[in-house]
Amino acid sequence: MILSDFDLWNYIKSGRLRIHPFSEDVVRENGLDLRIGRQIARFNKNSQVFDTKTSSATDFYSFEEGESFVVNPKEHVLLHTVEYLALPKDLMGFVNLRSSYARIGLTIPPTIIDANFEGELTIELVGGDFPVRLYSGDRFLHVVFARLSSTVEKPYTGRYQGQRGVRLPSFR
Predict the structure, then answer these.
(1) How far apart are CA 12 and CA 18, in angstroms?
(2) How many CB atoms lie within 10 A of CB 48?
(3) Three-state DSSP class for 120?
(4) Which three-class secondary structure string do you get for 104-119?
(5) Model pLDDT, residue 168
(6) Domains and CATH numbers, the chain
């Protein structure tokens, strides 16, 4: 079942869904709007092969911090959210790009937040047909939450648990 704003408020007020920093205006009709953080990781263009068994992701990205970023046409970047989320074991989230950003050609791949995940979200964003300047603190993601039919038996405890800032991919 998709949670309405009424359900989200119940999860938030009871402490079952934690959001920090929290602002009441992030709660929308059927989800939460999350804001762009201050860090971006750009994919380095090179002909080196990324080997999922032996390569270090740090060799394939460069980091920037600031109040705004330009995403170039067709460029892939990693962004993070200002908000740190902590989900309970009976809730998961579907992450979507807010439609205003999609309408200027930006896209994100399908992204799920697992039950029991805790951390800032790292999101891949793909540029459209023209450069776009993004600003830290602007609402750019909409997360729709669904209550699971039961509490998960194997809650998320993976390598991205507790992440802050942009977290590079890890295959080990």
Answers:
(1) 6
(2) 9
(3) strand
(4) CCCECCCEEECCCCEE
(5) 95
(6) 5-45+57-147 (2.70.40.10)
The neighbour count for residue 127, using CB atoms within 10 Å, is 19
DSSP one-letter code for 44:
P
99-119: pLDDT as tens digits:
999 999 999 999 999 999 999
Of the residues 67, 83, 124, 153, only one is catalytic, namely: 124
Active site residue 75: no
Assign 3-state DSSP to the chain and report helix, strand, coil percentages, each to 5. Answer: 10, 40, 45
38 contact partners, CB below 8 Å, separation of at least 6: 65, 66, 67, 136
Rounded Cα distance between 44 and 50, Å, is 11
Is 87 within 8 Å of 118 (Cβ atoms)? yes
Judge contact between 125 and 74, C-beta under 8 A.
no
Which residue's entry shows tokens 């450069």? 131
